Structure prediction request, 397 residues.
Amino acid sequence: MSTIPPPLSTWARNVAPSPTLAIDAKAKALLAAGEDVCGFAAGEPDFDTPEHIKDACIAALRAGKTKYAPTPGIPELRKAVAARYAAEYGLAVAPEQVVVSPGGKFNCYLGVLATCSPGDEVIVPAPYWVSYPEMVKLAGATPKIVFADDRTGFRLTPEMVEAAITPKTRLVILNSPSNPTGAVYSRAELAAIVAVAVKHNLYILSDEMYEHLIYDGLTPTCVATLSEEARARTITVAGFSKTYAMTGWRIGTTVAPLPLAKAIAELQSQMTSNSTTFGQYGALAALNEKEKTAAALETMLVAFDRRRKFLHAELNKIPGVSCLLAEGAFYLFPNISSFGLKDTDFCARLLEAEKVAAVPGSAFGAEGYLRLSYATSDEIIAKGVARLAKFCATLKP
Ligand code: PLP
Prediction:
């Protein structure tokens, strides 16, 4: 009788599956089974991709753009991405510094892989996007979680970053606007953290995936523009998923200093080759047909802003719940610690009793909170938050 090897590698055993995707899948399965679920778990816009972007992709498909593309992306798209950084932020980027990958998640992972070796440490601000610690571990490095709670607006201070640095630290991850809290760092706050990274000669991975989803008249900060030293050590990740409602397309972008961009493209060449060729023509239309794209983005922003304010006001009416008004992305991160329940139990009971899907803060390294995505309809938000209030009334704050 033949034997098979013991199951699963170190990597497969140690990686935690994405809790946000799991909860969203559970909510969608309940919906499909006919349950009246209010889903606050999704990490994607509830809008469809704008028509002009789809049209450009369809035209590319019909024109036979169905072959492998150059690993770092089609030249037109790399050029357009470089041009947008110059236009939006005044950042001089050569097309060779741009790498297009199959989704911003993969851009982030490649950024970690290109800079970190086994034994290195990576500073991960918490509450964190669920994938950062796992990516760091998959690179054989160690995440050093630095937590800032709602009393500091979920934003790290330079002192907190400095205190976490050791001789093994190699990389600092920044994410503003943040998933899961929606927190937006000011330019000055980011500059102060970057100064610490420069002082200790660290790389920076700045995940700017939500740069365009920002409210209250704020403008996003592109970390690489903070100083010459920042530009020389920052890997900037952004993409099409959130801004243009293109989550299923799997197209993200990295901008990095030339040697790093080359290393990232080489890693990608062995891991997945290029992002889907015809999809990149859709992304190109998103950048080139500026007026249509801006109009579509504005429609989303108006809806998100309205829902953000409504959900924030309703949450703060619930005895025992307190919630900051996040300035970016499409998430609110209310504090539910006064109920004395573990957040995982809170979410499980909420789904069971009221059919409301929310992600527990502990999935993001922040026990005692919930992540609620308002990238869903006004009706579902109103119904869901009313059910949440009813559920909370059954608990004692
Ligand atoms: N970065 C952050 C903070 C995110 O929330 C996400 C998606 O949820 C990504 C990166 C990756 O986006 P995608 O891989 O869908 O382009």
Notes: The domain at 67-289 is CATH 3.40.640.10 (Aspartate Aminotransferase; domain 2). The chain has two domains: 10-49+293-393, 67-289. Residues 43, 103-105, 108, 129, 175, 179, 207, 209, 239, 241, 247, 252 surround pyridoxal-5'-phosphate (CB under 6 Å).
